[in-house]
């Protein structure tokens, strides 16, 4: 996994609540057996004016000029600013894969759906929860100032605005360590293989019907 | 001894180890695997040279991509076919307790297949790369959806890295009225708490109305916990749970059964257990529900009118209501019962079990589909459900009404196969999500119960099932 330490990135403001993972990456692209290549189809139904299918040359498709990701001011954005309950719905990890593949490294919203939030951390993406009034302020500043950037520092758990205002954010120690170091979580867990085996043996004795 | 919630008991009995920050390694008993969210996980195992930790924890089937008609022609979409064949090959290479491939009599929607074969048992942790894994909480199990990285993690380590959620009790007391189903209860709860209301919580559904539900009804309810934002929903163990499971293939037998039931009887929240949040509804207040927008929380009783965005105080809500009405092609203040439907879908992991099909058939018997309705799809949840329905003659009732009787699968719930809405088409659907494009790009979904969907197919528009004859 790609490590995440510090990011100074352009902000793309997407002023919609309850953005679901079906919108982030529509179902037809879930037929892939690969983990990469989803970026061109991120928000496919909102981003393009035609119907997208796997295998199309996306560079030839008509873009929806009104959609946030297509606005000239947001080209090259690495931070997605969103509203409540971002990533709700389906558990598809293709959603964070598409967001990461597109070039985003961090997301800021008042709340995220649980499964999506969790999936982000497995892919070097940092989802940051901020109070609604802070998010409101960031939306106002991003709208007022073209080229609006934020500086995110994971070690100190802070977001710094262009005017120098600093907001702190929460993250568990475990997730922070994994992101900072780009650790493979399976490798980490397997260091405890003996404990897992011991737990499993005890469980077999207590509830043998689970192991039939 | 302190009083514990059912969730406390399920969580604590699966902790392998705990870090100082509260992050735990949680042991996983049952891993359900389907074709869409597993190929990258199997590939990850291969690349790292890892094996399955415990192949007997895995129960697998192909459901999302499989066609629901013309099975003799196989899977015609080559990309879908590759994904299903990749699952075949991976299960062959890595192994599983049970695999129900395309066309197998036991193939079907993974959340229907698990319980009907007794592969979901009380006290288990159940995971699957699918958000509707919450369905299995109906058996007093801790069940939730996971992403593909976690699928790989469970395959390689039999554990998940997780922190405990908060506990919410949703209590529904009283008696549900005629024509009001588990689906209506689920939608009414989501209407009350919102699609983010359960975020960060595991929900236990309790109260006399929940205890009165059948196990299949409880599955419908737990299935939609995720639509209320909660990864896991659950219902305490009782005699109905035991009765449902007894004799099923992977359920314990003989002495082990007695031993298991003795343990399962403890899988209830203790009297006086504390929840972080409690939500209460009165069963008598719940009417048949219909969603009008593009989020499951945008739901109203069938007797209501489509809301007016201008009357919403919150500007974010005002915007999302206006956007939803535009997408849905609806005008504010339109009575829901005057909304016509183009298609009807009865199926999905929410409502495709035998009781759902019986309920729909009960409404349809002796009647015909409205001429204005282009297509009515009846998609049973599994091959076993289909066989049972045919033994009871339900297929004939549907076919005589002009409905299409299909093969099992996820079908038009998410439209990964050929079953889908065309742009602008409006559907009465027993599925779980009315998101933009969910049932096909530009498609307009209204979530309802099987009875309400069947009645809409007959009338050509939504009707109040309580007065429909």
Give the helix/strand layout.
The complex is a heterodimer of chains A (212) and B (469).
Chain A: E1 6-13, H1 21-24, H2 44-47, E2 79-81, H3 94-102, E3 106-109, H4 114-121, E4 126-129, H5 132-144, E5 149-153, E6 158-160, E7 166-168, H6 173-181, H7 185-190, H8 193-206
Parallel strand pairs in A: 1-2, 2-3, 3-4
Antiparallel strand pairs in A: 1-5, 5-6, 6-7
Chain B: H1 6-12, E1 15-18, E2 24-27, E3 30-33, H2 39-48, E4 58-61, H3 78-94, E5 98-100, H4 110-116, E6 125-128, E7 142-145, H5 148-157, E8 159-162, E9 166-173, H6 182-193, E10 201-206, H7 208-212, H8 215-223, E11 232-234, H9 239-245, H10 254-264, E12 277-282, E13 289-291, E14 299-301, H11 315-328, E15 343-346, H12 354-364, E16 375-378, H13 383-391, H14 394-400, E17 404-405, E18 426-429, E19 444-447, H15 450-459
Parallel strand pairs in B: 3-4, 3-6, 4-5, 6-7, 9-10, 9-12, 10-11, 15-16, 15-18, 16-17, 18-19
Antiparallel strand pairs in B: 1-2, 2-8, 13-14
Structure, described:
Chain A folds into two domains: 6-150, Aconitase, domain 4; 182-212, no CATH class. Helices cover 32% and strands 14% of the residues of chain A. Chain A is built from eight helices and seven strands, in the order E-H-H-E-H-E-H-E-H-E-E-E-H-H-H. Chain A has helices spanning 21-24, 44-47, 94-102, 114-121, 132-144, 173-181, 185-190, 193-206, and strands spanning 6-13, 79-81, 106-109, 126-129, 149-153, 158-160, 166-168. Chain A has a seven-stranded mixed beta sheet with strand order 4-3-2-1-5-6-7. In chain A, strand 6 (158-160) and strand 7 (166-168) form a beta hairpin. The longest helix of chain A has 14 residues, at 193-206. The radius of gyration of chain A is 19 Å and the shape is globular. Chain B is an alpha/beta fold and 469 residues long. Chain B has helices spanning 6-12, 39-48, 78-94, 110-116, 148-157, 182-193, 208-212, 215-223, 239-245, 254-264, 315-328, 354-364, 383-391, 394-400, 450-459; strands spanning 15-18, 24-27, 30-33, 58-61, 98-100, 125-128, 142-145, 159-162, 166-173, 201-206, 232-234, 277-282, 289-291, 299-301, 343-346, 375-378, 404-405, 426-429, 444-447. In chain B, the strands form five sheets. Chain B has a five-stranded parallel beta sheet, sandwiched between helices. Chain B is globular. Chain B starts with 5 loop residues before the first helix and ends in a 10-residue tail after the last helix. The model of chain B has no long low-confidence stretch (mean pLDDT 97). At the A-B interface, helix 4, helix 7 and helix 8 of A face helix 2, helix 3, helix 5, helix 10 and helix 11 of B.
